[in-house]
Design brief:
- β9 (about 190-195), α7 and β10 (about 230-235) form a beta-alpha-beta unit.
- A 7-stranded parallel β-sheet has the order 1-10-9-6-2-3-5, covered by helices on one side. The protein has a 3-stranded antiparallel β-sheet with strand order 4-8-7, with no helix packed on it.
- The chain has helices spanning about 10-25, 40-50, 80-90, 110-120, 160-165, 185-190, 200-210; strands spanning about 1-5, 30-35, 60-65, 65-70, 100, 125-130, 150-155, 175-180, 190-195, 230-235.
- Helix content is about 30%, strand content about 15%.
- The chain starts with a strand and ends in a 21-residue tail after the last strand.
- By secondary structure, the protein is of the alpha/beta class.
- 2-amino-2-deoxy-6-O-phosphono-alpha-D-glucopyranose binds near residues 39, 139 and 160.
Amino acid sequence: MRVVIEADSAAVGRRLADRIAEVLSHEPSAVIGVATGSSPQAGYSELARRVASGELDLSGASAFALDEYLGLPAGDPQSYAETVRRSVTVPLRLDPSRVHVPPGDEADPEAAHNYERAIAAAGGIDIQILGIGANGHLGFNEPGSPFDSRTRIVRLSDQTRRDNSRFFDSLTEVPTHAITQGLATILDARRLVLVASGASKARAVQRALRGPVSPDCPASILQLHADVTVVLDREAASGLEGWVATVPAQEQPA
Ligand code: GLP
């Protein structure tokens, strides 16, 4: 596991963009796993800047989102389909027909299986971007999620609903359920890059990187993957003091 510690979230974003660009440089049709939430946003902005300036071309890439709320009306601005369209598809100039988000309409009982099949048909995910919940969740794999879980419908924990209520007008508007890639689905990606900023993530980051590998902290499953880059700001890394050093991304193997 490579751990990079940066001064602030803008620098975290640049590192995330560097890692994606590095993969794209030798795999222009890479399949990118995209996360929503605030953590990767600086990275998406930096990628958008590079695309706009002509430094980077993502037109051959595909994307699969990690998760989606259940039950929000189509087009709801808080749905992850809309969030991905706004912060990834449009600014990164991806082909919308190659951007996939798990369906949140509950109508199709085969939806979760079909999402797994679509990822497999695309050749699997080349690089998966991840944030981390304050309770250690990945995607919407809450504590207790089995390590062999695949895409499925899950109930959101009270903490996750409270944490995410900042994006809604009130807590009661936050959906109670979601569809999420499973932990085994995430671990199938060829490369993982986790980004976290801020003191509220310090404990989860410490448990994920240093704690026991256990479903109690779903992100601890990262310790089992062979190609993980973790990009943190100083606050998110504050629980790791004395354990890791900054490793310049350009010195890291692909
Ligand atoms: C959300 C998402 C995750 C995200 C995490 C952290 O609930 N389902 O995919 O990584 O929680 O969110 P944020 O980056 O906003 O702190």
